[in-house]
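User: For my dataset I need records formatted as: sequence, then structure tokens, nothing else. Please produce one.
Assistant:
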Amino acid sequence: MADAIKVLIVDDHQVVRRGLRTFLEVQDDIEVVGEAADGAEGVARAEELRPDVVLMDVKMPGTDGIDALRKLRELDNPARVLIVTSFTEQRTVVPALRAGAAGYVYKDVDPDALAGAIRSVHAGHILLQPEVAGVLLSQEESNSGQGRGGSLTEREREVLGLIADGRSNREIARALVLSEKTVKTHVSNILMKLDLADRTQAALWAVRHGVTG
């Protein structure tokens, strides 16, 4: 399983961790490398095991999932974090995505869909269930940056459209015949011009304003 996606499960409920492990261990391309019962332990284990994807609960005793996400970003840990939770409120969804989550799914997600979500975020995509995207889109309605799209260059609009399609920087670079470094620069410029915090917001902005790849 040298090429398998290495997954760390962080959840305070042992039954949930066991259930996730049991299902994921039958996937040929996914390897569960460890578990943690709270955010602090999750950060420590992520630093030790260097997983590709972390399945992170939000509400946990002590250090919760959002604080753990922020800590992982501070440590520049490369793991992609997929939130797996039962909480759908805006006050939970938005901070998690702001903290750097690559995706947000619910604990009642179909097992095969969860495996697909792990593969998707590992590939560099942003993955949101429709209800979560709706929360962010409704928040975007009040974003004062909606008239700033005119400041984007033609190339930046091309990059933004591909972000909206869920493409990673590597995929955008291939599609536009650019270096990944150049794509990263374009993404940074897009976020600055539109006054957005991250590429999730950028993707939702693009969808709302009809910018497609």
